[in-house]
Amino acid sequence: MIWLGDPVIPQRFLHAGEIHCAARPSLVTTILGSCVAVCLWDCRLHIGAVNHFVLPESPPGGGGPRYGDVAIDLLLKRMVAIGCRVEDLRAKIFGGASTLIGLSGNNDVGARNVALALERLPQHGVQVLLRRTGGTRGIQLRYCTWNAEAFVRPIGAVRQPPK
């Protein structure tokens, strides 16, 4: 049995624009505000992976994994590269908060990030099992790649618009 505090299990902090995908079990932690993390789980091989993207769509000419459209496609490609089949993958989606309440010009990047993930994953044939998205506070996410358990803790205070 694997425990969260097991010194043998590698722990990784995932920064914005990064992807973690490995056949070996690991505990991945990240902080999300309006950003979104898509956690994938292969129910046949018991392998998990996760990304952390900032904006929904890459600019014309392409972009890196800071963009959801690129990050989701790369996450799927990396899972397939280590032996997973797309039909065996299941997803959990986290983040997408509206952390900038009341600021002029806010077009709710968090909601757009979530919408992109909810649209794109089923297009690839990946079932979304769970989502913890929205709200006005950021979260800390801890994802166990060996069993797909996710632990979420709210962080920060609710931001109020300036008066």
TrEMBL record:
Indicate yes or no for the key word Nucleus: no
A Pfam family the protein falls into = CheD
Tell me the InterPro entries matching this sequence.
CheD-like_sf, Chemorcpt_Glu_NH3ase_CheD, Cytotoxic_necrot_fac-like_cat
Q: Give the catalysed reaction(s), semicolon-separated.
A: L-glutaminyl-[protein] + H2O = L-glutamyl-[protein] + NH4(+)
Signal peptide start and end residues: none
Q: Which UniProt keywords apply?
A: Chemotaxis, Hydrolase
Q: Superkingdom, according to UniProt?
A: Bacteria
- Return the EC number: 3.5.1.44
- Biological role: Probably deamidates glutamine residues to glutamate on methyl-accepting chemotaxis receptors (MCPs), playing an important role in chemotaxis.
Q: Which family does it belong to?
A: Belongs to the CheD family.
Q: Identify this protein by name.
A: Probable chemoreceptor glutamine deamidase CheD
